[in-house]
Specification:
By secondary structure, the chain is an alpha/beta fold. It has twelve helices and twelve strands. The protein has two domains: 132 residues, Rossmann fold; 153 residues, Glycogen Phosphorylase B (Rossmann fold, 3-Layer(aba) Sandwich). The chain has a six-stranded parallel sheet with strand order 2-1-3-4-5-6. Strands 9-8-7-10-11-12 form a six-stranded parallel sheet, with helices on both faces. Helix 7 packs across helix 11. The longest helix is centred in the middle third of the chain and has 17 residues. The protein is elongated, with a radius of gyration of 25 Å. It comes from Microbulbifer okhotskensis.
Length: 309
C-alpha cells in the first residue's frame, strides 16, 4: 500500500447498522472532523472510489471486500480493523453459541494474518484489549454518545395476531416505503419468528413477541405510539371480524388508519376520528406519511376517537 498524503474518502464496512459503529467509530471520526460512508458487506464501491480511501472494518472482514482490496492495495491509504469483543482469541468465544462461534471464525479470527499482511491498524474499545494485543500497537477508541435526532421519532404500529398473516404480508411493502421516505418513523409489530424474518432487513422495525392479554393491555397503555394501523383484506375469515382494534389503537393514545368497509365504518368516521382507506398500498403509504406530517389533524382525530371509549 502507498502512504498517501491526503485521505479522499473514509469507508466504514459493517454488516449493518450496529452499536459498535455508532458508539465508537462515528464519535472518533467526528473528532477527526471527517465524514464517512457506511457500506454493508454487499455494497462494494467501484475500484475508482478506492483511490486514497481509508477503509474501516467494524468487527468483521467479508471475503468480497478482502478480494476487492487485494486487487486495489496500491490505491488504498490505510486499512483499519475495529473490535469491541475479543475476536482474535479462540478461548474467548468458545462458550458462545455455535452459530456465533462460526461467524467469528469466518469473519474475524481467520482474518488476522491477512490484516497484518496488509498493514492494517487495529482499533480496540478497552484497555484490556489494548494490552492483550500490544504487539499490534492498537489504538484505543473511547465510546461516545449517540447524536440525538433533531426531531422525535413517531411510532407506527400494527398489532395483529397469527391469524392476520395475509394482512401482515400486505403491509410489508407499505411499511418498507413509508420508512424509506420518512426517517422519523419507526414501526412496531407483534409476531413470531416468521414475522421477524419478514421484516428483519427493514431498518427501524421492532418485532414484539406475542403476549397474554393482560400483558398486552399493560404494554399498550404505555407511551410512545403515534399511528395505529388496521388493514383488513377481504377474505371469508376477515369478514367475521369486529372493530375492536379501534379501541386498542385509541387506548394507546394513537390515531388509527382503518380498512374501508363495513367493519370499521361502524365506528370510524373518515377524517373525524380516524382515517378509512381502501386497501390499496399506495393510498396507505400516502395516508401514513400525510398523518405523520399533520400533528394538528392527529390531535383532533384522537380527541374525537376518545369520545367512543
Amino acid at each position: 500500500m502507498t502512504g498517501l498524503d491526503r485521505v479522499s474518502r473514509w469507508l466504514i464496512v459493517e454488516e449493518g447498522r450496529n452499536p459498535s459503529t455508532d458508539y465508537f467509530i462515528l464519535p472518533y471520526l467526528r473528532k477527526l472532523g471527517v465524514d464517512a460512508e457506511r457500506l454493508t458487506f454487499d455494497q462494494l464501491p467501484a475500484e475508482g472510489q478506492l483511490q486514497g480511501a481509508e477503509v474501516i472494518f467494524v468487527r468483521y472482514v467479508p471475503s468480497k471486500w478482502q478480494s476487492l482490496l487485494d486487487q486495489n492495495l496500491a490505491k488504498i491509504s490505510k486499512i483499519h480493523f475495529f473490535m469491541d469483543d475479543d475476536l482474535f482469541d479462540w478461548r474467548a468465544f468458545t462458550a458462545m453459541p455455535l452459530r456465533y462461534q462460526a461467524k467469528i471464525l469466518r469473519y474475524s479470527w481467520s482474518k488476522q494474518h491477512w490484516l497484518k499482511s496488509v498493514g492494517a491498524q487495529l482499533w480496540v474499545s478497552t484497555p484490556y484489549l489494548q494490552q492483550k494485543y500490544s504487539d499490534w500497537s492498537p489504538e484505543l477508541l473511547q465510546a461516545g454518545p449517540l447524536k440525538a435526532a433533531s426531531e422525535p421519532a413517531l411510532n407506527v404500529f400494527y398489532h395483529g395476531s397469527a391469524s392476520h398473516q395475509a394482512d401482515i404480508h400486505w403491509l410489508l411493502p407499505v411499511i418498507e416505503e413509508v420508512l424509506e421516505r420518512n426517517s422519523r418513523l419507526t414501526f412496531e409489530i407483534i409476531g413470531n419468528t416468521s414475522v421477524n424474518r419478514l421484516f428483519c432487513n427493514i431498518p427501524r422495525v421492532k418485532v414484539l413477541h406475542p403476549m397474554k392479554w393482560p400483558t398486552y393491555l399493560s404494554m399498550l397503555q404505555g407511551p410512545g405510539r403515534t399511528i395505529g394501523l388496521a388493514p383488513l383484506l377481504d377474505s371469508p375469515f376477515n369478514r367475521a371480524r369486529s372493530h375492536t382494534k379501534f379501541f386498542d389503537i385509541t387506548l394507546s393514545g394513537a390515531v388509527g388508519i382503518y380498512a374501508e368497509g363495513d367493519i370499521y365504518s361502524k365506528v370510524v368516521r373518515h377524517r373525524e376520528n380516524g382515517l378509512l382507506l381502501p386497501m390499496q398500498a399506495s393510498i396507505w403509504v400516502d395516508g401514513i406519511l400525510g398523518l405523520a406530517e399533520n400533528e394538528l389533524l392527529r390531535e383532533s382525530l384522537l380527541v374525537e376517537a376518545r369520545k367512543c371509549l
